[in-house]
Amino acid sequence: PQLAPNQKSIAFSYQGDIWIMDDSSAIARRLTVHEAYDSDPHFSPDGKSIAFTSNRFGNKDIFTLPIMGGSPRRLNYHSANDNISDWSSAWGILFDGQRDYNQVEWDNEIHSISATGGNPKRILDAFGEMAVASPNGRYIAFAIGACRISRENYVGPANNEIWLFDSEQNTYLALSDNDINDIFPKWLNDKELV
Fold first, then answer.
1. pTM higher than 0.85 for the full model?
2. Where does residue 57 fall: left (phi above 0), alpha (psi -120 to 50 degrees), or beta otherwise?
3. Can you say whether the dihedral through the CA atoms of 71, 47, 11, 162 is positive or negative?
4. Distances (CA, A) of 158 to 105, 145, 149
5. Among 2, 5, 21, 51, which one has the highest count of C-beta atoms within 10 angstroms of its own C-beta?
C-alpha cells in the first residue's frame, strides 16, 4: 500500500489490479482492470496520478494513470523487468532493473524516468534496489544485497543493507551493517528513515 501525499487516500494492489481508497468514503475504487498483474502503486508528488508496475507486455514495465481514472500510459519499453520504488519531484520516477552495466553483480541498477516518458537514465554508480528519495531530493536511500526479500530470516553474507547516496557530496554511506535483511527504506522527513 502507498499513502497519498495529503495522507487522505491509500493506493494498493489487490488481485492484480490497482485500487484507491479515500478516508472520507472508506470505499475502495478500482483504477485498473486488466488480465495482467498490476502492482506497486506510487502517488505522484502532487497526488493526482499513480505510477505502477505491470507485466502487460510480458515483462514488468512502468505505467502512469490519473487517480480519477483513464487509460494507463506506458513509460518504458526495455525487455528487462523494471521495479518501481518511488516518485520524487526532484528525481522523477525511480526504479531498478538489469540493463547495460549489470554483469556479474546480482543487484539491479537504479534508474529514473520522467512521468511524461522518454529515455530513462541510470542515476547511481552503485547497484541496488528499493531506492527512495528524501523529500528535499538531496538523498537517495536504497538496499544493496543479493538475498531475495522473500527470505526475511536469512542470515549471511548476501543479506540486504541500507545505503545512502548524497547527491550534493556525490558520496555513499552504509547505514546498516548487520546479519539480517534490511529492506524497504522510507523517509519520515529529510533527515530520518524508517
1. yes
2. alpha
3. positive
4. 12, 5, 11
5. 51
